[in-house]
Amino acid sequence: MQFFKMPTALAAGLILAGPAAAQGIDETINGLFDQYTSWYVALIFADLPGTNFSWIALWLVVAALIFTWYFGAIQLKGFTHSIKLVKGDYSDPNDAGEVSHFQALATALSGTVGLGNIAGVAVAVSIGGPGATFWMIIAGLFGMATKFTECTLGVKYRNEYADGTVSGGPMYYITKGFRERGLKGGPAVAILFCIFTILGALGGGNMFQANQAHAQLSGVLGEYPGWITGVILAIVTFAVIAGGLKSIARVTEKVVPFMAIFYVIVSVLILILNADQILWAFGQIFQGAFTGLGVVGGFTGALIQGFRRAAFSNEAGIGSAAIAHSAVRTKEPVTEGYVALLEPFIDTVVICTMTALVIVITGVLNQDPETGLYIWNAEAGQIRTDGNVSGVELTSAAYAQVFPWFPVLLAIAVVLFAFSTMLSWSYYGLKAWTYLFGEGKTKELVFKTIFCLFIIVGSAASLGPVIDFSDAMLFSMAVVNVIALYFLMPIVRQELDQYVARLRSGEIKKFN
Amino acid sequence: MSNEVFVVAYEGGGGGSNVLDYAIARAKKEGAELRLVHVLEWSPYQFLTPEELEERHARRNDEVRRAQAHIIDPAIEKARTAGVTATGDLSYGSVVPLVAKAAKSCGASMIFVGRSGSDSIGARIFGSVPLGLAQIASVPTVIVP
Q1: In chain A, whose CA is at the least distance from the CA of B51?
Q2: Do B56 and A423 touch (CB under 8 A)?
Q3: Beta-carbon neighbour count of residue B45 at 10 Å?
Q4: Distance (Å, rounded) from C-alpha A334 to C-alpha A316?
Q5: B57·A257 Cβ contact <8 A
Q6: Residue range A295-314: average pLDDT?
């Protein structure tokens, strides 16, 4: 509880004590943060005995490969069908006014597209080298099958209440699906998933976002204490999630997709302006993927960073998207699985790759001109970069090489992305919270208050402990969720086979 | 009694009163039936928050109930009182194509639509419902001031 009390208790004093004291508070929070979370982070990212390959990365890779094999490379075979579903080709006109496939996908994407694509990629590339991009793309492509599995189950086992509202997600498919298959332990596994979701919402869905929003803002406005950004973000978030200022949420939901599109356009422009270097950049990515190009850990270093950041960015296997996708109006759960598999593709294969290419092409990662290897900064634990920056500041520096005005725009985008992701995760966290403790205004207010206090902690903590804790929490969700997916994948297979058979026979009609 | 059907693009409220009165008068004179089409503006490409997704089905039910009770039913009753047979149609989507589609599907001979009353730049650039119908309707369209 020290976390919750400290920032607010000292906030008033800080205003009087000045910047020096405020900086001290940041350091104190960092210290406490590190002290209380490092053991868990170490456990989640522990290496397999005798290797430097973390078991959790292997966990997700194996899961994605198994789902890809089990569903017959659904991400390749079903890609065009996914596009048709999003376009509404198979949507019954009588269902107009209900949640469309596009809407479910867009909402889920606004929870995933964001800082993972901007800051996460920069972290992956600066630690794992350009080669991390290759593994990120591979993880994104295979992760599509994982997303397909979890979102199909999300719709199939959602709860539909008498008032017409719906609730879905892993906690529901774990409980109902396990019962249906005669498996014991469903409720206990669902509870465990909810605990990790709440912690994931506070970690990756909150503190990492707040932290990077502050990093970008202080990069543009000049250094100032993190808690200031935290308090402002916490107040606005609290006003939206607890105070009913829904208009802010609506505006954010509408602006964020345009920001994402603009980000992609700017990235494409930079690539066009440096068209002669694109092949070289891909060369660096492929070469780095298997040799490391001077990165500590070599091939495995690049691979681990790529997989870690891809999972953090597209959330395949984490289970969060199943919560958002479960609201779609469809009689065929598997259609939402098809639609959801586009999410890792858009998020990781398209947007993350754009960021990585721009970072590599603009040369912000320092290379030894003689050997062509990247210069390792042992003290920072990453490749030496211009200005020794990392995370979102590295992405900002890369884009600023071509468009000097970009950092200001990126600061706005980062804050909006961070805010939008925080809103999505406050919802996911709340769903897990109410699953555990039941619904009720007071119970919900307790979670919302804790969520907002963690925004302040996240803004003040340094990048290292926050990013590690964020990852650890998200991957904990994946541990539970993927186990459940293994048990429930035969149900998805059955759904898929039936759907494909009816599609082929013409029973499922195309409306447009 | 003719077999003619007139479609009324009916938005309800104060703005819909003139077009409804006029359509009832014309239908009575011609012995035609009225088909009232009320469209709730909706795009499957709108962006929604997670809470909005969760509540969408319930909200849609509410919207349909409210539109039926406060817009369609009173208008049908008004027509019946005037001795004109009327039916109602509620749908979600874009007004212009849906009204034109309804007119086509029921073989209507005429569409009645209220003047939008807007001369804003937005209406001039993107067009208004009466203008849109005038452009795409397959039957004569009467714009009622």
Answers
A1: A427
A2: no
A3: 13
A4: 16
A5: no
A6: 75
Asked if B57 and A99 come within 8 Å (Cβ–Cβ), the reply is yes
Largest alpha-carbon pair distance within chain A?
74
Alpha carbons within 13 angstroms on the beta-carbon side of residue A499 total: 20
DSSP alpha helix (H) spans, A222-366: 226-241, 246-273, 275-291, 298-314, 320-325, 333-340, 342-344, 353-361
| DSSP state at residue A93 | G
3-state secondary structure B16-43: HHHHHHHHHHHHHHHCCEEEEEEEEECC
Q: Kind of pairing, strands A376-377 and A166-167? A: unpaired
Rounded to an integer, the average pLDDT of A86-106 is 86
By residue range, what is the domain housing residue B93?
5-144
Where are the extended beta strands (E) located within chain B? Answer: 5-9, 33-41, 86-93, 110-114, 141-144
Please state, rounded to an integer, the average pLDDT across all residues of chain A. Answer: 83
Indicate the helix (H) or strand (E) that contains A430: helix A406-437
Cβ atoms of A151 and A336 within 8 Å: the answer is yes
Q: Which residues have C-beta within 8 Å of that of residue A350, sequence separation ≥ 6? A: A264
What is the spatial distance between Cα A209 and Cα A203, in angstroms, rounded to a whole number?
Answer: 9
Q: Which CATH number is B127's domain given?
A: 3.40.50.620
Task: Kindly list the domain boundaries of chain A, sorted by start residue.
Answer: 37-45+68-505
Type of residue numbered A2: Q
User: Beta-carbon neighbour count of residue A366 at 10 Å?
Assistant: 15
Bridge partners of B8, per DSSP, are B36, B112
Evaluate whether A121 touches A356 at the Cβ level (below 8 Å). Answer: yes
Q: Find the closest chain B residue to A94 by CA distance.
A: B91
Give the H or E element holding residue A376: strand A376-377
DSSP secondary structure string, A53-72?
-BHHHHHHHHHHHHHHHHTT
pLDDT at A82 over 90: yes
- State ipTM: 0.83
Q: What is the arithmetic mean of pLDDT over A242-254?
A: 70
What dotted CATH number matches A37-45+68-505?
Answer: 1.20.1740.10
* Angstrom distance (rounded) from CA A84 to CA A107: 18
Spell out the SS3 assignment of A112-155: HCCHHHHHHHHHHHHHHCCHHHHHHHHHHHHHHHHHHHHHHHHH
User: Looking at the partner chain, which of A100, A163, A166 has a beta carbon nearest the beta carbon of B44?
Assistant: A100
Residue B8, helix vs strand vs coil: strand
Q: What is the pLDDT of residues B14-69, one digit of tens each?
A: 666 788 899 999 999 988 899 999 998 888 888 888 878 888 888 898 999 999 99
pLDDT tens sequence across A330-365: 888 999 999 999 999 998 889 889 999 999 998 888
**H helix and E strand count, chain B:** 6, 5
Tokens found for residue A166: 């719906």
User: To the nearest whole angstrom, how far is the Cα of A252 from the nearest Cα of chain B?
Assistant: 9
- Residue A4: alpha-carbon gap to chain centroid: 25
Q: What is the pLDDT of residue B116?
A: 64
The tally of domains found in chain B comes to 1
Across the interface, of B44, B49, B63, the residue whose CB is closest to A102 is B44
CA distance A179 to A173: 9
Token look-up 């909706």 returns B42
Q: What are phi and psi of A343, to 5 degrees?
A: -60, -55
* Mean pLDDT to the nearest integer, A219-234: 85
